[in-house]
Amino acid sequence: MKNVPEIFGSKVFNDEVMRERLPKDVYRALHKTIDEGEHLQMDLANVLAEAMKNWATENGATHFTHWFQPMTGVTAEKHDSFISPEPGGKVMMEFSGKELVKGEPDASSFPSGGLRATFEARGYTAWDPTSYAFIKDECLFIPTAFCSYSGEALDKKTPLLRSMQALSEQAIRVLRLFGNKDAKRVITTVGPEQEYFLVDMEVYKKRPDLIYTGRTLFGSRPPRGQELDDHYFGRIKPRVKEFMADLDEELWKLGIYAKTEHNEVAPAQHELAPVFSTTNIATDHNQLTMELLKTVANRHGMACLLHEKPFAGVNGSGKHNNWSISTDTGVNLLEPGATPSQNAQFLLFLVAVIKAVDEYQGLLRMSVASAGNDHRLGANEAPPAIMSVFIGEELEDVLKSIEEGTDYHDKEKKLMSIGATVLPHIPKDKTDRNRTSPFAFTGNKFEFRSVGSEDSIAGCNIVLNTIVAEVLSEYADILEKADNFDDALSKLIKDEVTAHKRILFNGNGYGEEWVEEAARRGLLNLRSTPEALAQFTEKKNMEVFIKNGVYTETEILARQEILYENYYKTINIEAQTLSMMARRNIMGAALQFEKRLADTVIAKKSASSSVSTETEEKQLERMSNLVSELSKRLEKLSSDMAKEDDMDDVVELAKYHRETIEASMHSVREVVDEMETIVPLDIWPYPTYGQILYSVR
Ligand code: ADP
Ligand code: MG
């Protein structure tokens, strides 16, 4: 039996370790830095660094690294050893406060969207004291933010921290109006549920498309997919179970609250959910989780697929971003309260989120846009590309009676008058959850379900925090000026419900009717990444970031460019991989099968003149047609790809890849998938969907 409490956080320089190892004054100063963002004096930083190094080396670390999250989608690290030369050919282990606080990685090859060209060539990393340092692979990892010398953010952490700050400031203003004097800060909390696939390593290695692009670029559907729904929450296979146990242990050592592990809808698909934490830490932890999913899977002879759509026709993977707002004193502001005045406060925060989603639906959609996620959102799979909010029948009734100024009757038919001081007692999450909604209220938090499985959760939380901060600031502006707070509050809630009810939708988000209904309501339906990315630079959207100090205009332009680039480069790699696989091995297999058929015809004919070769000839004709069709379509793909050379505008390139290259790839795939259904397995060069999806036994 594992001693989990002992394992948990054993590789983390957490508060307990700090209290134990730091002189009291340093510990207190550090807390001021963590809690209140105060600058840490260099002499104290030196003491802290020394304590960190001692702890790290006692725990087997030889190196340290500034760990950061550039715009590549993965984390970055450069390891430096602690050694420092000593007389007599000896070394000492050293680590200074300066090394802890600031680093200068060679940043020239990280994407900057032109920022570095216009500004300063180098970037630096700055220690983020709000996320604990930890040991992994004999190295002390120090979470850091990554900026250019002129102060532009080059990473995902910096804007995330800024957005948390913005939300905190505005939420505190609102809380003060409700008479809350204790809360010093308001934080957003996140629990991301992570979906993934596990396939056997031997099978994985035989699919260059999985290796280069993370998804299969062809493959006809297996006879047994997820139709039977027997995988969801089903018995976990022993091999997967062992993997999960090992993974949990690795995550626990790093202080990650891995809590729930279960099978998902598709065969070979699983999910991991942690207990929620502060958004910044949840983001760091989700990055580590994704990385460890891969390394631990390898250790167990499996490959972990994090792509949003590894298999066409099979359920894809997402990340459910459970998000809430809470005070530093531990009060969840999205928790319906027990008293009328708590409920008034709850309703105001609820309405703020509803308004934020309505006003900035384009930004939210933008925050989850990627080439991989396009195969889910707005394709034939959930959640839809249209943003809407589900709050459950009961809460919707409450909002409706507020809007209409009528009395609200709860389920027991008890009459409750509506007004700021006597709002109804709101029962917790009694409604059925609507699984088709992209943004659902689930009792005391919102669950944003459109996030891609491979994406960092920083993106969507930066947007969520910023847009809610903006709405709260508008509310605070109005309420601070009011002569009668209760009246102003009642009126505000009522007006806002009326103004933003179009975003509320409790029906089936997958239906065609919703697409039409949403259009009537004037909601955006951005089906592809290029359309979604254009939202970033809409005037209103840029303003909300700039006003709340989350991004500068330059940063927005740079980021948008990186996202466009990332999008078309991803599709470009896919097109090249598909082309290579189809030209070489698939064409080769097809020709081999043709030869086999032709040989059979000749052999049969020479053996007897009376025997029929009709079936073989028909099959040969079919193959021959497919081969020439494949050849034609591959030529088209090549010539389409060649045309990119004349384009240099990222928007044009992104659109071209969406409209032309994807269509061309799709038409190649059609032929390949048909071939796969007739070419015998001994000739077919790649594992089939069935062989991949059922490879882990
Ligand atoms: P499910 O949605 O599958 O029913 P839960 O409601 O228990 O599961 O929680 C799902 C995720 O939501 C978990 O990661 C959990 O930690 C997280 N969560 C719960 N409460 C909050 C909160 N206040 N803020 C953010 N995330 C939360
Ligand atoms: Mg969930």
Notes on the structure:
- The protein is α+β, with helices and mostly antiparallel strands.
- The chain folds into three domains: 151 residues, Ubiquitin-like (UB roll) (Roll), CATH 3.10.20; 377 residues, Creatine Kinase, Chain A, domain 2; 127 residues, Up-down Bundle (Four Helix Bundle (Hemerythrin (Met), subunit A)), CATH 1.20.120.1560.
- 49% of the residues lie in helices and 14% in strands.
- Helix 14 packs across helix 16, helix 20 runs antiparallel to helix 21 and helix 20 packs parallel to helix 22.
- The protein is globular.
- About 2% of the residues have low confidence.
- The site of adenosine-5'-diphosphate (ADP) has 15 residues, from strand 9, strand 11 and strand 14.
- Adenosine-5'-diphosphate binds next to strand 9, strand 11 and strand 14.
**What's the Cα radius of gyration?**
28 Å
CATH superfamily of the largest domain: Glutamine synthetase/guanido kinase, catalytic domain
Overall residue-averaged pLDDT value: 91
For the biggest sheet, the summary is: 9 strands, mixed
CATH architecture of the largest domain: 2-Layer Sandwich
Which percent band covers the strand fraction? 5-15%
Q: What's the CATH C level of the largest domain?
A: Alpha Beta
Number of helices: 23
Overall 3D geometry? Answer: globular
Query: Helix fraction?
Result: 40-55%
Query: How many distinct folded domains?
Result: 3
CATH topology of the largest domain: Creatine Kinase, Chain A, domain 2
Query: Which cofactor or ligand species appear?
Result: adenosine-5'-diphosphate, magnesium ion
Question: How many strand units?
Answer: 19
